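Morning. Coffee machine broken again, so started the prediction first thing and wrote up yesterday's gels while waiting. Chain of 170 residues, entered below exactly as on the submission form.
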Amino acid sequence: MEPLALRPWHDDDLPLLHRANTLEMTSHLNGPETDEQIADRHARYLRYAKSGEARMFAILLDSKPVGSVGYWRLRWKDRDVWETGWFVLPEAQGQRVAARALALLIDDVRRHPERRDSLVAFPSVDNPPSNAVCRRAGFELTASSTETFRGAELTVNEWVYDLTAPRDAA
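Came back before lunch.
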């Protein structure tokens, strides 16, 4: 298995967002973003690193960027939680990259000085691979809901990871 690591997001990672902004990669997110939206997303990721409100990472497989994973603050169901999301480029899919990256991210969340009791993820109900990643990582499926995302309705599964449980329980 090739070595996998997370590297904090930096300025050179903008091309990674463009590579992920295809119809194939965004089919479960109501489609691609505009170039301006991609530039804004990249600028937000860089600001997050400075402000501490989120932690965004490039996923490195054998030292090459193949995706992104991160977590950010969210007020959800009257609780302060961390939300996570990820993508893995097509050439790296099917190698458990997302699952391995999520495990590293969970370790990072647990070390984060701002303690929260849950990490949540909201993959589309029509995205079996991302839902499987949540299941394998020890998240619990709690519900489904329909929200407006990128200007259209999107039905998502609500997955919750208990950060207070012992590490080996997940």
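Helices lie at 14-19, 23-26, 35-51, 97-111, 128-137. Going to sketch it on the whiteboard this afternoon.
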